[in-house]
Design brief:
This protein is mostly helical and about 230 residues long. The protein has a domain of about 130 residues. It has six helices and three strands. Strands 1-3-2 form a three-stranded mixed β-sheet. It is elongated, with a radius of gyration of 37 Å.
Length: about 230
């Protein structure tokens, strides 16, 4: 049996293994399990974001409380306004101060209203997330078990093919097999292809003169473009 025939036989068995792998990867069991795992991972990240936002809101509460205390302290200056009213200059000053203070209180009220709205939104988002996470955590072990059961079933088939590949590999040159496996890891398949005239059947690259001669002599060559193995 020639090296090409051995490689073709190996590739045929390998194609069966790829189909098994694809069957596992496209299964509903795997999709549901991966989706649940991804959701729980993202939910954890979202909780961290909510916690960071909560800390920011707490800082804003402290800042507004401090601002309110400042304004309240400023109000004390108006306690004896009647006594100062006799002085026209002083009254004019306090009228301007009162107007400024009123504007500060309005701005503070607006900030407080926005802060309260943000806090309500955060509380609602947290409660919804908590409810969904609890439901996902309950469902996750079931999905994980279902995927493992299906994977174990498929694994029996995959191991049988892997055993065949191991036996077939014994008759293939080590360097060639290493190159084959390297291409396989890069998701290149099929790896060994029959030439169509003097071009690669997969990417259409033409052979050089030297490659034509090697292919004509029965050697396996490598496409310069897609790096697949080619034979005449």
């Amino acid at each position: 049996m020639s090296q090409v025939e051995k490689l073709l036989k190996y590739q045929e068995a390998d194609s069966r293994l790829i189909k098994v792998e694809q069957k596992l990867n496209s299964s509903d069991e795997r999709k549901k399990y991966i989706q649940a795992r991804s959701y729980l991972t993202k939910a954890s990240e979202k909780l961290d974001q909510i916690e960071a936002k909560a800390q920011e809101l707490r800082a804003n509460i402290d800042r507004l409380n401090a601002r309110y205390a400042e304004l309240a302290e400023t109000l004390k200056d108006f306690d004896h306004l009647d006594e100062l009213a006799e002085e026209s200059n002083a009254l004019s000053f306090y009228k301007r101060s009162a107007q400024s203070l009123l504007e500060d209180f309005k701005a503070l009220k607006n900030e407080l209203n926005n802060l309260i709205s943000n806090i309500k939104d955060q509380v609602e988002e947290y409660q919804n997330l908590k409810k969904n996470v609890i439901a996902a955590q309950k469902e996750y072990p079931k999905l994980q078990a279902a995927f493992k059961k299906y994977k174990d079933t498929v694994q029996v088939e995959a191991e049988a093919i892997a055993k065949d590949l191991k036996e077939l590999a014994k008759d293939i040159d080590d360097d060639v097999l290493k190159k084959y496996q390297a291409k396989r890891s890069e998701r290149v398949f099929p790896i060994l292809c029959q030439l169509k005239g003097d071009v690669c059947p997969m990417c259409g690259t033409s052979l050089s003169i030297a490659e034509k001669e090697n292919a004509a002599s029965g050697k396996v060559i490598e496409c310069e473009n897609c790096h697949r193995f080619l034979y005449r």
